[in-house]
Design a protein that fits this description.
8-stranded mixed sheet, 3-stranded antiparallel sheet, alpha/beta, 25% helix, 8 helices, 317 residues
């Protein structure tokens, strides 16, 4: 990959020479969803477990961990770029960490950039947690986390049917809503087709969903950074599944501790707007700005990972 600064608003070059090779991270495992489909995830075992064959070898470990962290990737991406943070937290924070390739993403999705219905991503994450409890450990606590759009999905998930079952929420430069005060309107990464989005939103209010498979959101990923596993466009139902319908109400529904981390050089969001935007609705939330860090390199930044580990220790996670 070249080191040139792309002109799409996000600095993809910060990941060059930082992300490990596919062979050096846990291989993709599979689980079955409630609709009978198969999705993939990576499993990072705690207790300094060094093997990359992570297929439930609990007999070789001293003790099963009591906390599972499910960490969700952002728009267009897959679980691969979360490897440095997942590895650090599995090694230093006492978590088992799972990073799924969300439906419609990853190397070979059944329908790239699409889901079957709005809300299916939440159902998939719930199914993954139940799978992890059966296959890896009977976790006492589950923490949900996510980066960027994955942070929006984590928020949506944490405020939904799983709200009472979560021990914590970690939001890394999260996307709250297109009209939130945190969003830079001209970041250049995502290109929404408002001529489709607005009519489809009105139709969905009337319970008309037959056109929700239309693509409405395109991502401006430079050719030099494409690997073939990225997802360059979303259908309406995928876009809606990632976001919250009302982020203020969702925040108010969460009782678990919330940690919000954002780099002070974030190109997609206004870092200083997160606390005044989130805290009035979720007073238990904590915030930290990571110096010198942009939107993408927050997930490979050691200081950010250390802050999560400290927060987890403080809250007994």
């Amino acid at each position: 990959m070249p080191h040139a600064q792309p002109t799409t608003g996000l600095r993809f070059d910060v990941l060059v020479n930082v992300l490990p090779a596919e062979a050096d991270i846990p291989s993709l495992q599979s689980y079955t969803t409630r609709d009978g489909g198969t999705l993939s995830y990576r499993y990072y075992a705690c207790h300094h477990y060094a093997s990359h064959n992570h297929a439930s070898h609990r007999a070789t470990q001293q003790a099963a961990p009591s906390t599972l962290l499910v960490l969700l990737h952002g728009s267009s991406a897959s679980s691969h770029y979360l490897a440095p943070m997942a590895e650090y937290l599995a090694t230093s924070a006492g978590f088992d960490v799972i990073t799924p390739d969300l439906r419609g993403h990853g190397p070979n999705p059944a329908k790239r950039g699409d889901v079957d219905y709005i809300g299916q991503l939440e159902d998939d994450v719930a199914d993954l947690i139940e799978h992890a409890k059966r296959e890896h450990a009977p976790y006492e606590r589950v923490v949900i986390g996510g980066h960027s759009s994955g942070g929006g999905l984590a928020l949506r998930f944490a405020a939904g049917k799983q709200a009472s079952h979560l021990a914590g929420v970690v939001l890394l430069a999260p996307f709250l809503a297109y009209n939130a005060s945190t969003v830079r309107k001209k970041a250049g990464w995502a290109k929404p087709n408002l001529w489709r989005i607005l009519p489809l939103a009105l139709l969905n209010q009337m319970n008309v969903t037959r056109f929700n498979h239309w693509p409405v959101l395109h991502f401006n990923l430079p050719l030099a950074y494409r690997t073939g596993s990225e997802t360059l466009r979303y259908t309406y139902r995928m876009m809606e599944s990632f976001g919250t319908a009302d982020y203020k109400a969702d925040l108010a529904n969460i009782r678990a501790p919330i940690l919000v981390l954002v780099g002070d050089r974030d190109e997609a969001f206004y870092a200083k707007q997160f606390e005044p935007t989130i805290h009035p609705h979720a007073p238990q939330s904590e915030f930290e700005f990571i110096a010198g860090v942009s939107h993408l390199d927050i997930v490979v930044n050691t200081t950010a990972a250390q802050r999560i580990a400290l927060w987890a220790e403080t809250h007994g996670l």
